[in-house]
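User: Could you walk me through two proteins back to back? I'd like the raw sequence and the structure tokens for each, with a short line separating them so I can tell where one ends and the next begins.

Assistant: Of course. Protein one, sequence then structure:
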Amino acid sequence: MPSYQAPLRDMRFVMNEMFDYPSHYAALPNGEEASPDVVGAILEEGARFARDVLLPLNQSGDEEGCLLEGGEVKAPRGFKEAYQQYVEGGWPSLAADPEQGGQGLPPSLAMMLSEMICATNLAWGMYPGLSHGAADALRHHGTDAQKATYLTKLVEGVWTGTMCLTEPHCGTDLGLIKTRAVPAEDDAYQITGTKIFISAGEHNLAENIVHLVLAKLPDAPEGSKGISLFVVPKFLPDAEGNPGQRNGVSCGSLEHKMGIHGNATCVMNFDGATGYLVGAPNKGLACMFTMMNAARLGVGIQGLGLMEASFQNSLSYARDRLQMRGLSGVQAPDKAADPIIVHPDVRRMLLTQKAFAEGGRMLVLYTAQLLDVVEHGAAGEEKERAEILLGLLTPIVKAFLTEVGFECTNEGVQIFGGHGFIKEWGMEQLVRDARITRLYEGTTGIQALDLLGRKVLMSQGESLKVFTKEIHKFCQAEADNPALKEFIEPLAKLNAQWGELTMGIGMKAMQDREEVGAASVDYLMYSGYVAVAYLFARAAKQAASAQGGEDAAFYTAKLNTARFYYQRLLPRTKAHAAMIQAGAGSLMAISSEDFGLGFES
């Protein structure tokens, strides 16, 4: 079975030494509750729960999967008991509003816990994971009655939530949905339609499931402008707010998936189910975006957790596995062969995982700090800036971290060699589980269009300038620091090129809108590499100034990891830049009819 230790030392480095989380928390309302002692205790206990409760269920849950019998879904053995421990420990309410039964702690703390959960049991983590997004959507857009009925239960974790968007015929194009909502008595609606790919849509972990469903009213406009949002519970709450009559919603089947077998991914049928409108009519997509944005950050953290798990187990195996002698001579004379960690190519794969995991953690915790300000900060310039940066970075967190996360889990299998292809080691499960993260909550292509088209070009590049100005000021401040020269010079050049590439795409797009789609994914990946490079430069600054103490080995390793990232991973930006500049011509030159020439008759 794979092993896992939460990377608490690295988390503390990023939180306390790079981003000064203690001062950040102290400046937030109710921030005194997030004292260093409290934060430390939460992280330690979260690490124990992930390691001792969730990790032992990961492989067995994958092998057993979920079972659908008589319309009821049973999660794998141990999942329900683990969820009960999770609820009893108060974990679901960590960052929720005290008025709804939450603990009022900053959202960033919940995101750190999420990394540990994703690293140890991604499939299990999806059951409570979507509940946070459902609670956020109701908190922002629900009526007082809806909040009283559903929100506290979701916050406590005794009920779970889902988001029901996709249908068999429409995928991401939600304007094509066919699910209908017909007005009924007492402000209710009768919801009829079929939704697919609904994670945790039916299960036995909680006493009720609250579905947030996109549907169209009878007089709705065509397309996405005619979408409304409804809350549709599995059991209709009775007068005391407890689960009562079974609603007209059921699981028609379970999807047979490549990975995340321990999570019930359902086809959900709504047969005149009773639902209630959330937000204004025909404004459902805007309401659902509250939940979708939370989910996108959560999926990015899934990529981070999986790459950390892959790295830790790859490292352990590489230290023990003996094969051949080192190219420069015998490294372990007391053994029949040298451990494979001495070989340069194995080190390349290990360091790729290590650099992406540490860089991804910095990106997540940088973004988490912005989320704290957006959710709890006082209105003003700082909050406005945080909202702009959070919007810009959310698609990067989601797509970049899941893309490199999948790469890292594949490298993990490669390090294990043939053993990586065998189930008992657990590495192939990481690959299968990681593959879905590039797809759900918006594919990489969808995130890239959101970043380039909506966030950057629609703002005339102003949102990007907020971030590139920050990088520019950092490079200016450290330009004469000899310890950082190897980082500052390439970072400054890439930061300037980022703006130039953006302007070039914008100019081309004025003549041909296809240029945006042609450049978007490479643009997102370029953006991710540069964003992480900036954070590694900041980490290098902190590590260089802290060298020489009792933790010298940690800081030296941090500097060496930053050097590896800059020398062996950051050059990928050259390829992405070249593909961006190549434009749409070669992509669009072949007609749809001519794609099959050579095998179609």
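----
Protein two, same layout:
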Amino acid sequence: MANIKQTVKLGVFTLAIMNVTAVVSLRGLPAEAVYGMSSAFYYLFAAIVFLIPTSLVAAELAAMFQDKQGGVFRWVGEAYGKKLGFLAIWVQWIESTIWYPTVLTFGAVSIAFIGMNDVHDMALANNKYYTLVVVLVIYWLATFISLKGMSWVGKVAKVGGLVGTIIPAGLLIVLGIIYLATGGHSNMDFHSSFFPDLTNFDNVVLAASIFLFYAGMEMGGIHVKDVNNPSKNYPKAVFIGALITVLIFVLGTFALGVIIPAKDISLTQSLLVGFDNYFRYIHASWLSPIIAIALAFGVLAGVLTWVAGPSKGIFAVGKAGYMPPFFQKTNKLGVQKNILFVQGGAVTILSLLFVVMPSVQSFYQILSQLTVVLYLIMYMLMFSGAIVLRYKMKKLNRPFRIGKGGNGLMWLVGGLGFCGSLLAFVLSFIPPSQISTGSNTVWFSVLIIGALIVVIAPFIIYASKKPSWVDPNSTFEPFHWEEQPAAQVAGKTATVTAGTTASAAASENVAPASTKNTPPKG
């Protein structure tokens, strides 16, 4: 089996498509369609300063610690210590928890458009009580399925990714081309400027959320050792995958902008409305319910896979003594049941914000922004940590390395990623003027208080941890800066012991010798 495993390698294009499938989601296209032609600028800008740096930095870190547990906890912990490492994996877990209501909101809207009455479908999609019920029912259903540990969930997710994302994306782009080629009226001004008016601060605020479109590309770093000649072929896969991803986003956004006026764009409904309009144009309205089912299936299949996924990282770290025993409990199948229940409770509370927010759209936007804020904290720690490790762990083998020699290219790539993440982090706190988010007080309160609670919580947990929290069966390896002092102490102990033994042996040898060699008295 070992030999077979070694001979199976991923091709460049295969890995590129895997990255595309992991990153691309159509639910965010309406947010950028508001910008018209300048949306392409934002996509390209975010790809250069975030998508590509994320892929390359994560590949180096994943290859460095390929035999160590912990993921981002390991990467950041090696650079900055356990506290910040715990913060990194904590915000990654919480971010994914907050992500569920937003992605399921999109799923609920897709289900609402399965009907054939546009007016009724749109009214249902905008009904926050309907959305709340669908989000909670589907989420808890996915949680209980995850507790069963069903192996077929992965297969469902793969099919869902293809049926619910890749095929609809291609179809949307093709429909847009057919519409324009046959003389359809474009609601997008293709003669407008590619570069946005950056003097108008409102133009860049909403675009901050585009960074989350590309989030998750760091997961592709785990495959860096599965590629032949990774130093050459992995960057190729990254750039091909990035190009395909950007093309899907740009052309998909244009396709929506062509068929829907910017003033009528809704974050939650416009993707379905766009398909409806195109199908009506080609006299194939019967396809609308089918595409709605496909999109809903893609969303639900993705959630089914990820409900248990991100919690596995915090579970492994928790067993090493960083989380109370309550969070380490599993069911008979070894699934982290208590973490899943706590995660479900958080999703339920967040979903109840529907009652407070003025609309489904405002709820969707504010939770999306909170997700961005938290995820970007992890990314800033990852980018800066990668640079720090170039100096802290100079001699460690790097199967994949950014730049052949020196640290200049790492400073450039990691620095771009850090600065891009910092810019998006700051902009994420400002309410976008293009979208009604209700009261600014609610907006700032949820973002600032929510972010503070999430960031402070891991430090409180870390300060409270006890030796009894460590699971005796945990095989979590110590950090390199813990191993070095231990090795030095062991070395000194060995030296002292050897010296003592030698002295004792010398004493034993000398005394009898002197006795034997001493002439008898008298």
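The chain has a mean pLDDT of 80.

Let me know if you want the two compared in more detail.
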